[in-house]
Specification:
Elements (H helix, E strand, L loop, with lengths): L2 E9 L8 E6 L7 H11 L4 E5 L7 E6 L4 E2 L3 H15 L3 E6 L2 E9 L5 E8 L3 E4 L3 H8 L9 E4 L3 E6 L12 H5 L4 E9 L2 E8 L2 E3 L3 H13 L9 E5 L7 E10 L2 E9 L1 E10 L1
Helix pairs in contact: 2-5
Length: about 280
Amino acid sequence: MAAYRYVIADVFTDTPLTGNQLAVFTDGRGLDDATMQALALEIGFSETTFVLPPEQGGTARMRIFNPRHEMPFAGHPTLGTAFVLGAPLQLGVIALETGVGIVPVTLERDESGRIVFGRMTQPVPRVEPVEAPEVVLAAVGAERSLLPIELYDNGARHIVVTLEAAELGGLRPDGETIATFGITGVNCVAGAGSSWRSRMFWEHGEDPATGSAAGPIACHLARHGLVGWGEEIVITQGVEMGRPSALHARAEGGEGLIDAVEVGGNAVVVARGEFRV
């Protein structure tokens, strides 16, 4: 029976017991696919990561599992894993090999050397129209979107719906209908200028901090003229769940084309443990 150590971090927050929970197995060597999936189910967080030796020139390879299946890319697991690895490795950039390629995370430190912020360069998303926007609105309990409803795919799939701020608290998502959209999150956003709020729904509930959606949200707002290209926005999420989070995002581009996407935030380690399997 082998022992596998893990770290639990709360991501997109600097306050323990808020943000989005993540378990990071810092050395996944010796674990097969089935055991990784079983551990992700046992822990029960939205995602769990397993760190492995690099294969493509990155700092490390990372595999991401939710309780049901492996994911090619996700935002808070990428940022959280970089925070966990960055402390012992003492590197300024952690380049994580994911299912959609290498995602670099630049880490910022204070005078004591403690990591205080991380910025990941995300894959540029593909944009697709949503064929039945009225079905999406009905699925979250909204009447209309201020901007066109579109789907963004950066390795994770996210629909973006833009609402008035007063509508966010009253949304009543229908998980059965959302499940018919496939492995897709529905992100309802509201705000102005650099300050935005978001709620993300998927078939099994709500997410407190969705890093893979923050980049597409910045892209969506820039493409439709509500923020400037290159302007950093702060997205508050998880408030209704009692796990507030803050995600910083910006998109570079112009004339409807996306050139680069960056998402940043903080993370805090809250627990360490060991599984014997």
